[in-house]
Amino acid sequence: MPKxxxxxxxTRFAAIVGEKGVIRDPQTQQPYLEEWRNLWTGRTPLILxxxxxxEVSRIMALASExxxxxxxxxxxTGLVGGQIPNPDGSEVLLSLDRMTRILTVDAEDFSITVExxxxxxxxxxxxxxxxxxxxxxxxxxxxxxxGGNLGSNAxxxxxxxxxxxxxxxLGLEVVLANGRVxxxxxxxxxxxxxxxxxxxxIGSEGTLGIITKAVLKLFPRPRxxxxxxxxxxxxxxxxxxxxRFKQHANSGVVAFELIPEIVVTFVTKHMGVRSPLPAGSxxxxxxxxxxxxxxxxxxxxxxxxxxxxxxDAAVAQTEAQxxxxxxxxxxxxxxxKFEGGSIKHDVSVPVSRIPAFIxxxxxxxxxxxxxxxxxxxxxIGDGNLHxxxxxxxxxxxxxxLGRWAEISxxxxxxxxxxxxxxxxxxxxxxxxxxxxxxxxxxxxxxVMWSLKRMLDPKGILNPGKVLPKI
Length: 470
Description:
Blueprint: H1 7-17, E1 22-23, H2 26-33, E2 47-48, H3 53-66, E3 70-73, E4 92-95, E5 102-106, E6 111-115, H4 120-129, E7 132-133, H5 146-151, H6 159-162, E8 169-175, E9 181-184, H7 198-201, E10 210-217, E11 219-220, E12 225-232, H8 235-249, E13 253-260, H9 261-270, E14 283-290, H10 296-307, E15 312-315, H11 319-330, H12 332-335, E16 342-343, E17 346-348, H13 354-368, E18 373-379, E19 384-390, H14 397-401, H15 404-417, H16 436-439, H17 442-455
Parallel strand pairs: 2-4, 3-4
Antiparallel strand pairs: 1-2, 5-6, 6-10, 7-11, 8-9, 8-10, 12-14, 12-15, 13-14, 16-19, 17-19, 18-19
Helix pairs in contact: 1-3, 8-10, 13-15
């Protein structure tokens, strides 16, 4: 078990990073200690902001010596509490927000090497400067950082075409719990030489090691985007429409987002964003093609309208209109805050099971909580839905949020019945830690705990996250 750091230990930590790399003042610490949905607030005696891998290595060597718990944090945009220290103030928070360098861009090799504290937006911009695309795209891309993206295996809107963060990573540099540095900063596409150590750390949420650098894949920068906001009669129609679009554009379909009418209402009401189509359709789809051909989108939409899979559509005529369509999508989550408490679920099911999942999950929750409102939206191109449930109008917010575990249990049971996952892209963190007992077999948990004990025998790396208590 980790130990509470002594004043002498804290002084030794601070000496590693210098005064520029230490935050002691509780008020200055606060932005690092609060999760943005206010579900978790932590305390720490010290925030360390190392400026190099060497400093991270020395921090972890000292942490191992003194058995001090270290909580790694990148951009503090995580949604499951994996980046927040515990409230008793016994854990030291290590922020990567000073390690922001873009190290190399190899346009010929379609790769980029960055420090883990680089924001996603800065990596996208660096790739664009070399006429390349880094396709990971999230609503929080201006503040989330690559270390956290990899640590949580982030997804986003382009997974349908390019994959998750795991699929976009070629190599890693990781500081282990004892301070040793595991360096695999190689841009190889094929390396069949034993165990894939890189993938142990991607998605491990800082519980096995601290990612300090990464080599990421780049792609040709699309010359043309075709983007449409489409009214559809049902989720089943949306799933069939996705299939038709793939037939028309194949790999050119780079995004396909399902949006219910109620969410459009919330965004237009609270966020000052206009809908591309008038109200009246129960569901909408935001679809995007890249380099699919001049008439691909128009041909696909014409066929969809003839077939009854779509009832109306607006196609962006300018880049400004395209960005306006995406602004509506990116502000969906924020708009829910104005409607009181929201119990959120990041789930996935096979794409073909999406209509059945929605048809079963909504009445199941309604039976438990009459009057609640459903914000079921997300990346149906890869089966990932954000099944968020807003409180009934007039209900006390805290009383509603107090039913989180019960409502989540109902939703997750339906997910599992359809062969799905209770975490598609946000991770496990604190929020879903105990759920691991019923979604993972005893053998799976035993293997996971074996890896944890081997790589972190003193239990100092992000304790209390991902793995359930034993």
